[in-house]
Amino acid sequence: MLPKMANIQPMEPENENQGEFGEYDRPSKSAVKRDMLALQDLGKTLCEMPYDKVKRAPIGERLLIEIAEFHKCKSFGAKKRQMQFIGKLMRDEEHEEVQAWVNGETVEQKLKVLHLHAAEQWRDRLIEEPGLLATFIESYPAAARENLNPIIRQAVQERAAKKAPRNFRQLFQIIYRLIEEKAEADET
Question: Which of 8, 16, 167, 175 could form a disulfide with 154 if both were Cys (CB 3.0 to 4.6 A apart)?
């Protein structure tokens, strides 16, 4: 006679998520590594920027000091080690805010770009049609105190004679300053 077989039943998982695949409590190693490499790339971008600009970035004092140290490094190996250390320090920073600043997504930077474009457009329009000066003065009343007619006339002459654009630049600077002043006055 054959021995009696034990009734074998499959083991039940201790908790309901134990038997399912794909549900983890933490990110995978690959995801962590991608995040770390992204932070190193952000640190590299900061290091490649002029230091005077980086000083205005929304970063901590320690990171700013280490970026200054990066600029002092001479050898490739030293720069690489410093870059990795900067990537490690980036973990402690508000990297979304820093990334937004690097991308130029801050409100101040966007406004500055808009003002620069507006100044370029007004300059070009005034040189092509000097009669638009009255419209410009209506839009920017502070322009009435500036003597723009001679500057516009000289900029037109410079362009026709293919001379250095001294008055062309001066006109742009005046227009840009007027646009900035009006924007500041509108804020208050």
Answer: 167
Give the mean pLDDT of 91-100: 86
SS3 172: helix
Report which of 85, 31, 33 is spatially closest to residue 62, judged by C-alpha positions: 85
58 token code pair: 């929304």
Query: Of 110, 111, 112, 134, nearest to 122 (Cα)?
Result: 134
Are 33 and 16 in contact by the 8 Å Cβ rule? The answer is no
Q: Read off the tokens for 49.
A: 């920027």
Token pair of 115, please?
């003002």
Burial status of residue 148 (CB atoms within 10 A of its CB: 0-12, 13-18, 19 or more): buried
Q: Is the distance from CB of 100 to CB of 106 less than 8 angstroms?
A: yes
